[in-house]
Each structure stands twice: as structure tokens, then as C-alpha cells.
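Below is how a single chain appears once it has passed through the pipeline. First comes the sequence as given, then the structure the pipeline wrote out for it. We keep one example in the README because the format questions we get most often are answered faster by looking than by reading.
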Amino acid sequence: MIHDKSTTIKKDGTRLDDDTLTSYERVTREFLDTIKRTIPSDIAKQDLKDWMLKLRVGDEKHKAVGHNTVCNYYISIACFLT
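Resulting structure:
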């Protein structure tokens, strides 16, 4: 997924910036570490829903995040899964 994003060209002809790539990598790693799966075909719909709920309520390591942030993280993971 990260290689795909690092070779993506935006509509204006520029590449994604390093901060964006770092964000995709961080969110994807956190998701995979949480669900304990690494192969996209092994990831169930419920894994994604459970992760999104965890984002909304937080835990001992992470504070809860707002709806827009959850939606942005969801988009990042959806890109990974496709």
C-alpha cells in the first residue's frame, strides 16, 4: 500500500507529500497491529468496525478521536484493502 501511495500522482501532477505518506503508513500499521492480521483477504468487516469503535472510545494508549478523524482513517484503510 505504501509503495502504491508513494507512486500516486495527484490531479495537479505532483506526488503525495512525505507527511501524507507517513500518515498512511502509521494508520495502516496501527490498524494491522490492532487486528493482528496482515493479509487483506483475512481481514473481516467486523475487524474494521471493531477498530473504528476503538478509535471512537479510545483506550489506555490512545485518546478517543472525533467522527471526521475516524472517517479519514477509514478511507486510509479502505485504500489499503483495495
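The chain has four helices and no strands.

See the next section for the split statistics.
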